[in-house]
Amino acid sequence: MSSTPEISDGIGDSERVHLSPHRGVMILCFGILSWFLCPIFGVVAWVMANGDLRQMEAGTMDMSGKDMTKTGKILGMVNVILVIGVLFLILLFMLLMVFLTPTLPA
Asked: Rounded to an integer, what distance in angstroms lies between the CA atom of residue 29 and that of residue 64?
């Protein structure tokens, strides 16, 4: 009779912490997609990254994806801010054109 020895790392089953898997790859992909497909992906990346980084700091999520999560968040943030800025400038230009265009006499 041979039995396989149990390897113990010194941590009992009741002491193990089950960490949620990180979503860094998905957040990074959303940050990249926000630049090429649709800016909504930037908002999604920003919101998801905030939640995941909060969980990582609390110790309930795997920390190995922290850099990818931060990069995706930054890509999403920059894209959203630039899109809002461009839309603001377009609106400003349209309003200036309406108010500064001389009216023709009837």
From this structure: 16
pLDDT tens digits, residue range 44-103?
999 999 999 999 999 999 999 999 999 999 999 999 999 999 999 999 999 999 888 888
DSSP code for 61: B
**Between 8 and 39, residue with greater pLDDT:** 39
Q: Where are the domains of the chain?
A: 20-96
- Cβ(1)–Cβ(19) below 8 Å: no
Phi, psi dihedrals of residue 103, rounded to the nearest 5°: -85, 145
Quick one: DSSP state of residue 41? Answer: H
Long-range Cβ contact pairs of 80-86 (< 8 A, separation 24 or more): 80/34, 80/39, 80/42, 80/43, 80/46, 83/39, 83/42
Kindly report the pTM of this predicted structure.
0.76
Q: Tell me the three state secondary structure of residue 31.
A: helix
